[in-house]
Amino acid sequence: MGSRRYLVSKTLQAVVTLWFVLTFNFFLFRILPGDPVAVLARSEKLTPDDIARLQHELGLDRPMLQQYFVYMQQTLSGNLGESLTTTKEVKDMIGSRMLPTVVLVGFGTLFASYFGVVIGIRGGWRRGGRFDTTSQYGSLILYSMPEGWLGMLLLLVFSGWLHWFPAGGYTTGGLTGTARVVDIVDHLFLPLLTLTLGYIGGYAIVMRSSMIDTTHEDFVQTARAKGVPDRLVRKRHVVPNAFLPAFTLIFLSFGFVLGGAIVIETVFSWPGLGLLTYQAIQTLDFPVIQGVFLIASAAVILANLIADITYGYLDPRIKQA
Amino acid sequence: MGTGLRKALAGAAGIILLVLALAGVAQAQSTSPGGEEDVILRVGVSADLTTDNVFAVSAGSDWAVITAEYDMMQKFAVADATAAPSLATGCDHNEEYTEWTCTLRDDVLWSDGEPLTARDVAFTYRFVIDNKIPQYKSYFPGNPVFTTPDDHTFVWTAEEPTFAPTMPPWVYIVPEHVWSQYDGQSLKEIRAVSGMNPVVSGPFMLTEWTPGQGFTLSRNPNFWGPEPTVDRVDYRVYTNQEAMIQALKNGEIDIADGLTPTLINSVSATTNITVQKVVSDWWLNLAFNFGGQGPDANPLPALHDLEVRQAIQMAIDKQAIVTKVYQGAATPGDTMIRPASAYWHLDIPADEEFPYDPAAANAMLDDAGYLDTDDDGVREDPSTGESFELSMPASSDTTGAVEAGEMIVGFLKQVGMKVELLPATDTKMNDYWGSGNFDMYIWYWSGDPDPNYQFFVFTSEQCGSWSDGCWKDPHFDDLYEQQRSMMDQAARQEIVHEAQRYEYEQVPGVVLAYPNWLEAYRNDRFTGWIPSPGADGYLLPTYNYDTLLSVKPVVGASNSGSTSIPGWIWLVAAAVIAGVVIVVIRRGRRTGADEA
Amino acid sequence: MATEARVVRPAKVSTWSRRRATMAGHWATFRASRRGMVGLSILVFFTVVAVASPLLVSEAEVSPALATGPLHAPPQVGYPLGTDNFGRSVLDLLIVGARVSLLVGVTAAIGAMLIGAIVGISAGYFGGTRIDAGLNALTNWFLVIPWLALAIALATVLGASLTNVIVVIAITSWAATARLVRAQALTVKERSYIERSRAIGGSHWHVVTRHVLPNVFPVLFANTILMVALAILSETTLAILGLSDPVAISWGKVIESAFTAGAMTAGYWWWLIPPGICIVLVTLAFTMVGFALDEILSPRLRQR
After folding, report:
1. Residues 194-253 of C with CB under 8 A from B
2. If you average pLDDT over residues B266-289, what whole number do you get?
3. What is the count of residue pairs from A and B with beta carbons less than 8 Å apart?
């Protein structure tokens, strides 16, 4: 059946993309100049002998191809190696940073897409109306703001001037139970607001133009001609069809949101994967960067796959193809 | 979008509403003062702990922890960081300085109740040498032999005269009965040993550690010294400096360690916060490259000309770097031994220093024949025809290096030199350094209180190894050897001063600044800090742990002034969200009815 | 649609004059778009500032070493937007920064456009072949990988210089263009006159340059304008993370130095807010112009 073939081909495509990510990651980070052992050498007074010994222990002296196979094999069995700077398991380091990012990106995407879609529907439906004009300028302005700067602005106002929220971090520390959860929410508020505001604009624009496209489709005109009430045309015919491409774009933009999270986490010291990436790149901690890349890419690939499958499921035209 | 999704969103909004309400309640509660059983010192740090394994320490917080956990055989004196009694009550040497005998205290127990003896000392030192522990092995020159005639006598026998035992070696003594099992394993395995609930001899031990967030030191019940007032030291990690300052202002922490200089303005105006500008134990270094590291090392030949180097020194306004880059939290640099080594550091008198005088620098270069013949604003070297275009990597991991670099670009432009600033992480700096592919670079040096190592890296034989830019000067090498073989401390001090002055005049590099380490504490919370070394020293354990033994709460200290949102905001927010939820649900019902 | 009539009138001269007429028509439509005109005015203003910046501000005034103003001073006479940590006038920095920010944005966008156009046209033109599949996989891959993570890694590998920032932005942002162009090229290829052109012996090169490129160009142009906005935002992001050129003064760099100096807690609003407003204005302007062009040039969005 067509739909199964569609599913299989999309999944296969995702797997190939993932393999490409793995391979690319491996080679990109071998090209990086700068030998991690040399860093240790300066800070810890190593002699050439020690350096050779460390290189051997870290496997950096083996042939490239051999390193590649070892890397693939290990990665596929869930072993991401250990950090060059902390000698801790990358898996564990990523694990401990996962939750903050999932919370930030998850809620951020949810809020931004919800409000963006709602604004886009209203604006696109009454194109040129007052709401549309206002919301469009609003969306454009939000879309034009660098996320990092938006975060700093919110920090300046709500933390620097009003002292309503903490200037960054995850918790105040020393708290337990409900107080701790509340404290985390307190710290989460500004970064989450930044991420939400940063992406509402884009989503609203996408949904709006999708609405406009759909409005001009024949079946909408037909429905109108048949005398279906306006509100029902919008609800039954336009929104469901307009939502589809917007929905795909929201999933496709997941990589951008992750990117935004890197900056926002840096600005707010939110201890998630973004901050970890930034810190790891500062020290050229290859295994950590590789691990984060892998996780982030896998998440994005998965998001795309979900979008594809849902799209195929919702849009009968694709199923038949 | 169906009603299902709408309901789900309404549900999500409801949950958020609940969380916000909880937040409001809990914020109101958290402002009330808590119990007062334990005395807890809360420290804000910018670097997380990476390990408390003595043989694997690297980042700043690692040192803070092991310094509180362990003892050295002889410690660094509070006043000047020279050797002082600790586990050993004293050390004596024979006539030739080849044999040192140290007497150990007999009342020291490890935290697990085992006695600490001379064998632990000998084991630790032996462990460092045999397993080539990189951080420490240079403390044991000349194949020393360690013997323990009895439990409280430790003998260090060297092949040649040495003052190494009283530098003193910055090695914390570990328990043999815990560490002997790792002896002979690979460096990687030794480094991987984790030290939770460690066996220690110092006043505190690591009892909690949540990576990325913080760690806690608790009192060692078996500690041999005076009992500290503080029961626990809570370290909280702030990757964000501003969050740390805010936490200090709000009273969430009592002291903040390692503030960036650009931020001190925001605390120095606050009356209940005192800023400690810790005397510098590192220096910002502009090193010239003389070449010779390898095929990629092609520095500007004119740098071999002393007049060129002196002209560069005179074209750089160090005071301006101190003011603009470090916001005054530094002193202009002169010699290669940092001021924290007060006993050894030579402070060149102001009237003997190279002045900041770009006009004079220009005149010197003109007189030496380096003219701008093609009139492009950049001088040329008449002997090679090369123009003065200098590549200058700067370490982006070093506080102020890149900013200082930005300024140097401008300063040297005034004297007809074109400088290309290349910021680089320390990893990349290593590449430049190793290959010699640079004309000059900005990095830092720091190290032991004793000057021996610092001199050592500037000797000719260190080209291709530790030397910044392969400066080779036989006279300096000679001075290095002299101070190394001089056993009399006062006489050695004189040679050390002479070597510093000579190096300053020869300008193998420019010591740009001695930046202060910055600590800021709430003077209404804790008192009794013991700075070390000297009155301008560190308030938190760095060279020794004495400060932790004496620090105590200020009488009547209160917990006040945390960040919070005024109550009415919470009410308004809750009302707005409740309104939105109701509207969404009702609209959902209405449209649902339409469809039916 | 006008373009489809082209084959009937092969004469070169008339093609040109017709194109000119189309352009004039487009310009008239554009002028009627208020958003487009507002955007264009903003761009003209900032371009003038950028071009004239050497006349307005001397090098010494924005030199960290030689600037003589007070440090971290709020707005006052002589320093209408206050000063930064080196004692430089923030207004001067913004004037000089306009040059770098616009340069990076435009160059990177053109770079991305070139890569995207080449890949997209090749893929579209060879649609269905193995070349298309390969290029498509490459494009997809670049679309999938989180762009900032890739950009950071590349920027670290290449080192922090203005050229590298441009290269990094171009490399990480061509994929969307390629996909768009490929789709467009595919539809163009299906058109009958291309079949005919090939049938009468037109080479690949001829078909691409004479038929595909002109048809793809409008979409490409609007897309590039939109891309400039993204490129300026990307430069800002990289600068905030400390990966841009340390010496070149861009608006992003001004934000980064305000950030590292703790402008938020210290309340140095004059140092933090204005560069962001400049970025928002210029990004907004490019986006508005881009959208206006998009509506004119791609018939899909044209109303009635």
Report:
1. 242, 246-247
2. 89
3. 155
